[in-house]
Amino acid sequence: MPDSVWEQTELESLVLAENGLSEVSDQIGRLKRLRMLDLGHNKLTRLPESLADIEGLTDFLYLHDNRLTSLPLSLGRLTRLRYINISGNAFEVFPECVSSMSSLIELRVSDNCLAWLPDSIGRLSRLRELHLRNNKLTSLPETIGKLLELRQPDLRGNSLTHLPAGIAALPRLQKLDLRWVVTLISPVWIADLEARGCLVYR
What we know:
Blueprint: E1 13-15, E2 36-38, E3 60-62, E4 83-85, E5 106-108, E6 129-131, E7 152-154, E8 175-177, H1 190-195, E9 199-201
Parallel strand pairs: 1-2, 2-3, 3-4, 4-5, 5-6, 6-7, 8-9
């Protein structure tokens, strides 16, 4: 990227998608007024720690379709961020920093290699949409039951054998997507969800 980009410190939106980028300069941390950053569809294998210095990042952070296997722990400081998309990467372990992004409303982690989720995901108390399609999950943590704002968990294409009963008690659940999950014996409480108007796709 030309250095002149990092001099535009008044920017509120920056789209660098589909540029074949293999790295991002540490200078990106100078763009403290950014509300939306799109780094999707590149060739990134790492992100600079300075990304966490963008205090104004509130609206969107697109990191999908790269080659990321981890995220800097410092990104947990982005506590005002409402949407993050890390789908289409190579995560085998859920990035712990995401569990600290306490304002998240929508989290997209589809098309990765996750075999499990940490208990800390239950800290995302404002989360409404959780997209986990096409990972390697066999179960979910019981703390999913703490996501009281959750409306739409997308679990398609995983190898789930068990679902926490706490899902049945989520008060705002509207849609539970279990398509292409062929390993799951349907819990008895699925019928209760459907009876109260939740759409269950299987």
